[in-house]
């Protein structure tokens, strides 16, 4: 018996595949060479596409840079949501999310360089990425506040908390997700982070001083 022919891809599907290939190639090239040396020639060669194809999707090199980080950030959020699925408490969700972030970095080691250089070379993308990340974290914290799993913080306090937790992940990544450490996050770092999240640092909770 002959195998049935696979359905032909639509023009939209082919277009999306090419666009995804350009984003993946751009991510790898920026990860290796930095934004400043990530030329259109290098990107299209990495994607195995004609250079002219690039201009069917992006008007310029800066155009793809302005979309690259939010696109990768969206993939990171999908990965984290998949890993968090099924968690039943704030602490479990937070630990799974924390581990998932570093698991994503191990799969996509070029992400850190893209993120860190974007503030200079792709500020539009950098701002959009942090809006996406903080908005998602704020929704997560609001749910935990509503169920009484975290303190009854104000919106302004929760925004500060979201940035504190995001910054912790970023700096831990710079410390531990390096080639000389094999890209592995030590369990000691996980325990320290979860200690901060679940119980704070003081042996006994001290009253928070009121603002003047």
SSE layout and pairings?
Blueprint: H1 11-33, H2 40-47, H3 51-54, H4 61-84, H5 90-107, H6 111-121, H7 123-146, H8 155-176, H9 187-199
List keywords for this structure.
single chain, 212 residues, mainly alpha, Tetracycline Repressor, domain 2, 2 domains, 69% helix, elongated
Going by helix content, strand content and strand pairing, the class is: mainly alpha
Number of helices: 9
Instruction: Round the mean pLDDT to the nearest integer and report it.
Output: 91
Identify the CATH homologous superfamily of the largest domain. Answer: Tetracycline Repressor, domain 2
- In CATH, the architecture of the largest domain is Orthogonal Bundle
Per DSSP E runs of 2 or more residues, the count of β-strands stands at 0
The proportion of residues in beta strands is: under 5%
Low-confidence segments, ≥5 residues, pLDDT <50? none
Task: Name the CATH class of the largest domain.
Answer: Mainly Alpha
The CATH topology name of the largest domain reads Tetracycline Repressor, domain 2
The N- and C-terminal alpha carbons lie at a distance of 82 Å
Number of domains: 2
Order of helices and strands: HHHHHHHHH
Largest sheet: none
Radius of gyration: 21 Å
Query: How would the global form be characterised?
Result: elongated
The level of helicity is 55-70%
Give an overview of the whole structure.
By secondary structure, this protein is an all-alpha fold. It has two domains: 11-58, Orthogonal Bundle (Arc Repressor Mutant, subunit A), CATH 1.10.10; 60-199, Tetracycline Repressor, domain 2. It has nine helices and no strands. Helix 5 runs antiparallel to helix 9 and helix 7 crosses helix 8. The radius of gyration is 21 Å and the shape is elongated.
